[in-house]
From TrEMBL:
Residues 45-61 have a biased composition (Low complexity). This is SHOCT domain-containing protein. It comes from Conyzicola nivalis. Residues 62-71 have a biased composition (Pro residues). Residues 30-74 are annotated as: Disordered.
Amino acid sequence: MLRRRMGRPGLIGTMARTAVVAGTATAVAGGVQRRQQARADDAADQQQMEADAAAYQAQQSAPPPPPPPAPAEDDLLTQLARLGQMNQAGLIDDAEFAAAKAKLLGI
């Protein structure tokens, strides 16, 4: 028959107990840390989604950009000068020049 020893545990028993306690503490701490990290990640994801939604909403509610301006028409003096050059070059005669000038001036 084996006799069971009574009293304090021996060196190997103490080491085994210490290893079990340390392993359990490490496992519990790791689980807590993983849960905390998961919560922090979820909160960050939620904040990012809210920021994205707000940016999308702002983009949708913003008025569309104005259309590009139409090309500026030549001013009256430039058009008259061009008519004068065409008349001097012989591209239009005096009657056509007078009619175009009257049309530009609204006469």
